[in-house]
Design a protein that fits this description.
It contains 20 helices and two strands. The protein is mainly α and 511 residues long. The relative contact order is 0.10.
Length: 511
């Protein structure tokens, strides 16, 4: 078979009842019943699924994931996927691809010609061309059906009368009429190809690109409709999955119970104490005797922020947020980078004074340099901070010199470098305070909204206000969408943790 250009996703609602379903007791491992169906064998399920049920479930998850991606990711599109040329998969695909076209050439050049592969190609071309048509293009649809009538073409092939060059030129003319302007040049290049096999080869390549264009066009037109109905659509799809897997909310339940307990339990003396984890697995009977219960909304928002500290080695991710897991990991990574950046800027400002840092050009340059040098922070934090400390101290020296200010003494320079290098330690006091305030800001954004939170911006973070605000918008939009979709399930879980009467009395008023 020829190689149609592979595509990757970058990043029709149904009406149905979608009432919340009360979850069972937590206990099943996430690996065995992952919402993503990474390991979805019947033996691993409490309820054995038939092969048909499994296929249907995989299809439902796929539809739900794609619809969710289109709604939450404005940059979502399909693009051409090119395998690395030196990879094993790439080499195998290239060999198979070339072997097919060589075989087609041998068939067409044989006497008498063999049209077996050519007919398969024409059949696939016809299907692709029909898929590129809009519903109203009935005239073109009838024309293609008539010109590429496979029964007629098969009869012509049997009588050695199949005119492959003529059909290729007809297909090419159709492509000129159907392609998007961005593909005009690629299609025009095909007009200069006279070899029938090379022409078919080029046609298949460009048809793959045109098919990708049509998918992106459909996504663009579908997005407003999906955004309007996304909450109901996602909730309905999730309920369908929950009907098949009643244990699908186990990890979500554990997450909310643990969050509620942590909110009402004094912090243990040791941050590594497993006390909270043990309590999270127990029955929430403690709630009946606790007069300082948080509201269900506060529990949920606290849980959202806690996702940015998730330890995947010991904690199972909530099923209701699995589709956004990678997005949350990215937000966590960006938040950590901003924490380091703010720590560096604060330490540097404490040595050089406000005059130098009040210059936007200098501040932007220092941010750029620091972020560039921090690309190696995760694998080698100490080495990265050595580079940062040396470059930042140099920039401060040059900045003070250019402004005619007194340069730092050798003692202060050494102290500056030392304090900057200490930021590599997680326990560094500046870094810890910045980290706490950054997460506190994100929680404020959830509770009070972005506008109010920006008016009361945390002290010490002003140097990264623009960057943190952008991250805050991204986090809030994502979490509010999740809250809208899954609120019935969260409320069903939390009503057994927080008595409704007390929850209503303690609605969110402050953090």
């Amino acid at each position: 078979m020829p190689k149609i250009e592979k595509t990757v996703l970058q990043n029709d609602p149904n009406e149905a009842e979608s009432g919340a379903r009360k979850p069972k007791t937590p206990g099943q491992s996430q690996e065995n019943k992952s919402f993503c169906l990474d390991d979805h064998s019947p033996e691993s399920q409490h309820e054995v699924l038939s092969v048909t049920d499994l296929i249907e479930t995989v299809n439902e998850v796929s539809k739900l994931s794609i619809a969710h991606e289109i709604v939450v990711n404005q940059d979502f599109y399909v693009e051409e996927s090119v395998l690395p040329p030196n990879s094993l998969e790439g080499r195998i695909m290239e060999m198979m691809y070339n072997a097919f076209w060589d075989h087609l050439e041998d068939q067409l050049s044989s006497i008498p010609p063999d049209f077996t592969c050519a007919l398969e190609l024409l059949k696939e071309v016809k299907e692709i061309l029909l898929s590129l048509l809009l519903p109203r293009q009935n005239y073109l649809r009838n024309e293609i059906e008539e010109a590429l009538d496979m029964d007629l073409l098969k009869q012509e092939a049997e009588h050695e009368a199949l005119d492959v060059p003529h059909l290729s030129n007809y297909i090419l003319n159709l492509m000129i009429r159907l392609c998007a302007p961005v593909r005009d040049e690629a299609v025009q290049k095909l007009e200069s190809i006279t070899d029938p096999v090379q022409l078919l080869k080029g046609i298949f390549h460009v048809l793959g690109l045109m098919k990708m264009d049509m998918v992106n066009y459909t996504i663009q037109n579908l997005r407003p409709y999906l955004q309007e109905h996304s909450v109901q659509y996602e909730r309905t799809k999730f309920q369908q999955l929950l009907n098949k897997q009643p244990s699908l909310l186990d990890c979500t339940t554990k997450w909310l119970i643990k969050t509620a307990i942590d909110l009402t339990t004094p912090s243990p003396s040791s941050p590594d104490s497993p006390r909270s984890s043990r309590m999270a697995c127990s029955s929430p009977n403690w709630a009946a005797n606790n007069s300082e219960l948080p509201s269900s909304t506060m529990v949920l928002y606290e849980g959202y922020v806690n996702l940015l500290l998730w330890d995947s080695d010991i904690e199972e991710f909530p099923e209701t947020l699995l589709m956004d897991r990678m997005r949350l990991r990215e937000i966590e990574s960006q938040l950590n980078q901003l924490t380091i950046l703010a720590s560096v800027l604060l330490v540097a400002r404490s040595f050089s004074g406000n005059i130098l840092f009040s210059t936007p050009k200098f501040l932007d340059k220092l941010k750029y340099i620091t972020m560039a040098l921090m690309e190696e922070f995760n694998p080698r934090p100490e080495e990265a901070m050595v580079s940062v400390s040396e470059q930042v101290s140099y920039e401060i020296h040059q900045g003070l010199k250019n402004m005619g200010l007194t340069a730092l003494s050798s003692e202060k320079t050494a102290s500056l470098i030392g304090q900057l290098q200490n930021i590599a330690e997680k326990e560094n006091c500046v870094r810890s305070i910045i980290d706490q305030r950054s997460r506190f800001f994100l929680k404020c954004c959830l509770v009070h909204g972005m506008q109010e939170s920006l008016l009361d911006f945390p002290g010490g973070l002003i140097l990264i206000k623009e960057e943190l605000a952008e991250l805050g918008w991204k986090f809030v939009n994502l979490m509010h969408h999740n809250q809208q979709v899954f609120s019935p399930y969260y409320e069903e879980i939390l009503k057994d943790i927080i008595p409704p009467a007390q929850a209503q009395e303690k609605e969110v008023e402050s953090i």
